[in-house]
Design goal:
Elements lengths: L1 H31 L1 E9 L10 E3 L4 E3 L5 E6 L3 E5 L6 E4 L5 E4 L4 E6 L7 H13 L4 E7 L12 H5 L11 H10 L3 E7 L4 H6 L27 H16 L4 E5 L17 H19 L5 E7 L15 H5 L4 E5 L19 H13 L12 E3 L13 H13 L4 E5 L23 H5 L12
Parallel strand pairs: 1-7, 8-9, 8-15, 9-10, 10-11, 11-12, 12-13, 14-15
Antiparallel strand pairs: 1-4, 2-3, 2-5, 5-6
Length: 450
């Protein structure tokens, strides 16, 4: 009884200390906080920006329809973001009128191995100089669980995630890209993590026989319900943000499409959606000190499906916890019958454009929240055609006509050409006849002769 009373006394004392600390922090914030009145404008049109996000490490507010916002802060800096614009960091003592630059991402994917190859990087940088490309999305954590550079995250170092790294000076690498005017995105694969599953069996997804499950590529996954996994990946994302990346892109932030696996929780739609949302909330919390956008990759069919596609994704749930949604709208990935087409790869414009429109019906969001992945590789589902100038250009126009905030070209080996891309060194071509425009056989894009 005496021991129980003593433990109760200690618990009460601890609670008193915590309450005093919280009161001290609250009073300190009130003493040093200042109220900032901000006016957010489009840098080109000078029109007020509604819905711009102003934040510090403690809170966030949005601008009203007149571009006005009020925030109480004790932070030295404020972060200003708006969908379809480059983010901006201002001092709390700066001018209270803020101009945001409109920005449409036009991206090339830089694979884990391409990032460490001067040959591939020189080719990508040349395309960025000569064409409309202004963004690169770089593998930071790939499907094997390997990191492209040595992170400061202790668990990553413990499991040797950096041992096959291809970038040996990440700060210099990112700076070089930004010095060339590029917007730099970190791609982080989340739950498909063979290395973490191998080194920490307790995190791995298992089958009914308690054996670690591996997919067709012989790679293991970790359990999306496991909060320890959430913390690990969120720490990696925060480390990447601290190195200067402008955006954190989460891929494979979903459940695998495999039946019969054993999870930490009952496997149903409600729990799946909640698990993905919880991870994104964890990541957002750890990214709060950095002025970065976030984006999530998802299946193209998520734009069309009413449910969660059995992976924990709905457009509505994702939109609550990420800035941008990047559906993989590869025409080769759609089945016969989509929009009534027998061969979706013959209708690239329509596949992209109508998929975005379908996605907008799933949630009350603006089209500027979408930055779709587009196909820049050989068809694998129909007539095996190569995606060259016509096919790439049609997809891009489909995204542009849907008013997306950009597009991302995917080639798994990062082997890109200038075909389908506008050459910034050439004038626009003469407009075609109306009939050609109507039939979408021409996409108003100035292209290189590559």
């Amino acid at each position: 009884m005496l021991i129980a009373n003593y433990k109760l006394h200690i618990l009460i004392k601890k609670n008193e200390i915590i309450m005093k600390l919280l009161l001290f922090l609250f009073i300190t914030f009130k003493l040093f906080a200042t109220t900032q009145n901000l006016y957010i404008l489009d840098a080109k049109s000078l029109t007020p920006l509604s819905g711009a996000i102003i934040s510090d490490q403690n809170c966030r507010v949005k601008s009203d329809k007149n571009g006005m916002a009020k925030i109480s802060t004790s932070s030295k800096n404020l972060f200003i973001k708006a969908y379809g614009y480059k983010q901006k960091t201002i001092s709390s003592t700066d001018s209270k009128t803020v101009f945001l630059e409109p920005f449409t991402s036009k991206a090339l994917y830089v694979s884990f191995w391409a990032a460490g190859s001067s040959k591939y990087m020189n080719r990508i940088l040349k395309l960025a100089r000569d064409t409309e490309i202004n963004t690169v999305i770089v593998d930071v954590k790939n499907e094997f669980g390997n990191l492209s550079y040595k992170s400061k995250v202790r668990l990553a170092q413990k499991i040797g995630a950096h041992k096959q790294r291809t970038i040996f000076n990440i700060d210099k690498f990112v700076k070089n890209l930004k010095d060339q005017g590029l917007y730099v995105v970190a791609r982080i694969v989340v739950f498909k993590d063979d290395r973490l599953a191998r080194t920490h069996d307790q995190y791995a997804l298992k089958d009914a026989n308690a054996t670690v499950w591996r997919n067709r590529e012989k790679l293991a996954w970790v359990d999306p319900y496991d909060s320890r996994v959430h913390d690990y990946v969120a720490d990696i994302a925060a480390d990447a943000a601290s190195r200067g990346f402008d955006e954190i892109n989460f891929d494979y932030v979903r459940f695998p499409l495999k039946k019969g696996l054993v999870y930490l929780k009952p496997h149903n739609k409600r729990n799946r959606v909640a698990a993905i949302s919880k991870f994104l909330q964890t990541a957002n919390k750890k990214l709060r000190p950095y002025n970065v956008y976030t984006s999530v990759d998802t299946y193209g069919y998520v734009c069309w499906n009413k449910g969660d596609t059995n992976i924990g994704h709905t457009i509505k749930s994702l939109a609550k916890h990420t800035d941008y949604i990047s559906p993989m709208l590869y025409p080769s990935g759609f089945g016969v019958g989509i929009l009534g087409f027998r061969n979706p790869t013959d209708h690239n414009y329509e596949i992209i454009n109508e998929s975005i429109k379908a996605g907008l019906k799933r949630a009350d969001i603006e089209p500027s929240r979408f930055k779709p992945w587009l196909q820049s590789f050989k068809d694998y589902g129909f007539d095996r055609k190569f995606f060259r100038s016509k096919e790439v250009s049609q997809q891009i126009k489909g995204a542009e006509h849907a008013s997306c905030s950009g597009w991302l070209l995917w080639n798994p080996s990062s082997r890109f050409s200038s075909k389908g891309l506008q050459d910034v060194r050439l004038p626009y071509p003469i407009l075609p006849a109306y009939k050609e425009v109507k039939n979408l056989s021409y996409c108003f894009r100035k292209e290189t002769k590559d």
